[in-house]
Amino acid sequence: MALYGSSVEYGLHCLLHLSEAADRAPPSAKDLAEYQGISPSFVAKLFTKLEKAGLVISAEGVRGGFRLAKPKGDISVLQVVDAVEGGQPLFKCKEIRGNCILYDGNPPDRVTSSVCQIHALMQEAELKMRGVLGARSLADLDKSVGQVVPAQIKQASRDWFETRAQARRTDS
Amino acid sequence: MALYGSSVEYGLHCLLHLSEAADRAPPSAKDLAEYQGISPSFVAKLFTKLEKAGLVISAEGVRGGFRLAKPKGDISVLQVVDAVEGGQPLFKCKEIRGNCILYDGNPPDRVTSSVCQIHALMQEAELKMRGVLGARSLADLDKSVGQVVPAQIKQASRDWFETRAQARRTDS
DNA sequence: GAGCACGTACTCGGATAGGTGTTGTCCGAGTGATGCCGG
DNA sequence: CCGGCATCACTCGGACAACACCTATCCGAGTACGTGCTC
Hints:
The structure is a homodimer of 172-residue chains. Chain A has 172 residues and is mainly α.
């Protein structure tokens, strides 16, 4: 278990692959899923969210697929997380202060108008977290990955997607 | 919806009330719940977690209840959150890199031994968040609240819990 | 040979189930306070 | 008057459901490509 679900991991990995194939044939959801060994249907569902958030553009038809809607340097990790997770806050204050039995259903204005201190602290923590995620773009992430993954693998990856795109509609 | 559930909010509010009544009769879970207008059963369930985490000490019997296990200055908000939420990480890396179809089930050591860049970024964000929560204690929080809530209300609150404790076993 | 219309296979997209975690509820075991009884 | 004991109401603690969300799946609508026909 974790606070963020698997969707975040899947989404980021997929988008990184997409950024690699920017000027190639757009990989389909199925291609991306099979390449990474994850559920194709779930990836498809994921990309509907990413498209609604304006991060990717879908192409239909037999040669269809997805490509980034913006340069990879203009897409922050935070945008991806928010698109996938629905922009959920870290903490949702229920304002239970107002339920205090002393107020008997009529909390004074002083309580309702002032901000809950617990809420304020949580917002501060959330802001720090989002700051880290917002400061890093897909390009930065891709660069970091490039320092670990050798160019040979990257080339093999591109070739695989290329072959996969070529094979559509011809191998039956 | 939010990343942290209601338990965090309930737990922190309850513990703040407990810190106010440090040298009084220990409030029971039922008292704390009714005072705040929340579910008594759920609060009881919550406090079992807080006790297992060593944050509160339970007293049994008719005059029983809960009191803080340590001075309020020695309990950080992070400890409370972790106790209630089970110390869940922000992000759990599934290492789907190793599933890559190119590796065919046998990912090279370079991949398995190196840290996932996405994972690393998430850990950085989580660290920042936990840093904020870990730097603030219940005493700090109580102080902030004191600047908003007038002493009159605080006194009324103490009186209510006192009355409630007195009323046990005598009003039937 | 060129243009056009059609069929097809593949794609996206949303509607549809299963599993898991969280919220909320309930009842039983244990315990300290209380009142009574005997010394 | 004082100490011990049985009772009891209240507490904690864990076992028990209901709900919601996340993960995963399926099938239908739509579209670009390829092919064959017509001119």
